[in-house]
Amino acid sequence: MTYTGFRVTGVRAVTSRPSDKDQAVPGSTWARDRSAPGANDGTEVDATFLNRIRVNLEGLVTALGGNLADGDAQLSNAAAALMADIEGRASITGDTFTGDLVIAKQNPSLLLRDSDNPAEGLQLVVVDNQSYIQAGNGNESIIFSGLGGTALADLYRYDGAVQRRVWDAGNFPAGERIALDGADNALNFRSTDGALNLQIGDRDLAVNRLLIEGGATGNGPVLAAIGTDINVDINYAGQGTGGHRFGNGMGLGFHVINAGLGAELTHCIQAYGGDGTTNPGLQSTEDFDYKTPLSHEHIWRVNSEIVGKIKASSTAAQTSWAALVSSPTSSPSISFEGSAASVNGWIRTKGSTPETRFLNDQGSALLVSPNGATKNGLVIRPSAAGTPVRVYPSNMAYDSSGDTAPILSLETTNVGSIIRLWGTAGATGLEQLDNGAIMLPRLAAAPASPAAAWSYFDTAMAKRQEYNGSAWLTPMYEGQGITRGVRVVTAAGAITVTATDDLVVVNKTVGAATAVTLPSSPVLGRIYTIKDGKGDAAANPLTLTPASGNIDGAPDLVVATSYGSADVFHNGTEWNVV
């Protein structure tokens, strides 16, 4: 019969473990023999003791990898299973290590522990085809050394065909993909040909350092300065005129260059962010040079929209430019500067016309011109030093020849200021004097092609003349009679009075009754006179009819007396007879 485990087979055995019996003698106890055959003074072997032996034996078999169903071979088979996992024998004599030690099982590990300090040791672990060497407590160093620990040992890796040395007595050897050494008191990373690619220097008493760490999903990796100081800069230093290039892998995005050759720079550009109450900014500790190649532009955008642009006038070197100058005590200014003795500047719309030029060669004039090449246009400038500022017409060049015919002059005299609107060459137009008076243009004869409401002072007659749309009239002065505009009608047919008419005389060649229509848009309060100049109104009456409304409540007004007349005016609502 085969038993599973170490079963008790005697009479009155039970199928569940009874409670342990209390010790007869407290403390650590041992068994003793009887004093003589037949004596009843030996130690009693009870069920509690035997049950503990059974439990420990079965636990030992299980721990060694044995099978509790092996009957009498349980312990021997468990020992054989242990020897199957650990093959060979290991012995250490002095500094000589001989023999093979093999642990063959799933995810094996080997722990070497210091008996004097169980927290220290070395653990070799194989997990999922990956091998690890780690210090027992995670804080210890792992040193590869020769016999006795007096020299650094070599370290090799096997690539499936050849053993390659990856640690050469303290250094990663040339020829390997990654090389690491401690030359020049630094940590050096070398390429496959032994060239130095990265060097981490040694700084005594360093308290600030560089942190490089990866980023989780949705976050980029981090390059940060950390340390005991509250504020820690990251210092980038190029060699010579070398600078700093930043890109996204598709090309250069940002490039910072040094201005000197190895000298320490004292002027720099500072970029800073905003904190919610202040805006981010870019500032310079000295003059700020903002450069692009000659054929390129400076462009400012808000989102994707262009809001400003600065460009050179050509691809050649620029000898003149505009300067924007601010002042803490006076108004800001825009100046045109350059290497030339005289520099003109201009502001213009897209295309070549029109444009506004600021001119220095003729007393700092301002030119508004449709053609900058010939400089024709509206010019505002002093005609000479100490003389008035004058405005010239668009068909006259801005040079000195234009002084004879300006269209506007702003003059300052010892007694005040005068504004002049100039007329033809040599003749002054309308003037606003400093005493408030207005001086009309002074002409010896009436101007040609007049229009209604024109006015001038006739120097030959010494009178002011006004044009009513059909004739020049002399307004009434004190001591003189009233001069009225007269229109004589001799043609047949009806007559329509215009708003600019004054006195309409009906003197038809062939007498006939005449219909007279008053103006549809009369001048408010203006008196219109309709006169029978032929003297036949008794036979051929004149019938006055408004274009709209009535005359003193009647639809019309009839002049039926020979040489008779009617004076009417419009009060804003209807016509009235004077």
Task: Please tell me about this protein's structure.
This protein has 578 residues and is mainly beta. Strand 15 (244-247) and strand 16 (252-256) form a beta hairpin. Helix 1 (47-63) runs parallel beside helix 2. 8% of the residues are buried.
Secondary-structure map with pairings?
Elements: H1 47-63, H2 74-85, E1 86-87, E2 91-93, E3 96-98, E4 102-103, E5 109-113, E6 121-127, E7 130-135, E8 155-158, E9 163-167, E10 179-181, E11 186-190, E12 196-201, E13 208-213, E14 222-227, E15 244-247, E16 252-256, E17 269-272, E18 281-284, E19 297-302, E20 305-311, E21 320-325, E22 333-338, E23 345-348, E24 355-359, E25 365-371, E26 376-382, E27 389-392, E28 408-413, E29 416-421, E30 431-432, E31 438-439, E32 442-443, E33 455-458, E34 463-467, E35 472-473, E36 486-489, E37 495-496, E38 503-506, E39 514-517, E40 527-532, E41 542-545, E42 557-559, E43 565-570, E44 575-577
Parallel strand pairs: 32-33, 36-38, 37-39, 38-40, 39-41
Antiparallel strand pairs: 1-4, 2-3, 5-6, 6-7, 8-9, 10-11, 11-12, 13-14, 15-16, 17-18, 19-20, 21-22, 23-24, 24-25, 25-26, 26-27, 27-28, 28-29, 29-30, 30-31, 33-34, 34-35, 40-43, 41-42, 43-44
Helix pairs in contact: 1-2
Structure, briefly:
By secondary structure, the protein is mainly beta. Helices cover about 5% and strands about 35% of the residues.
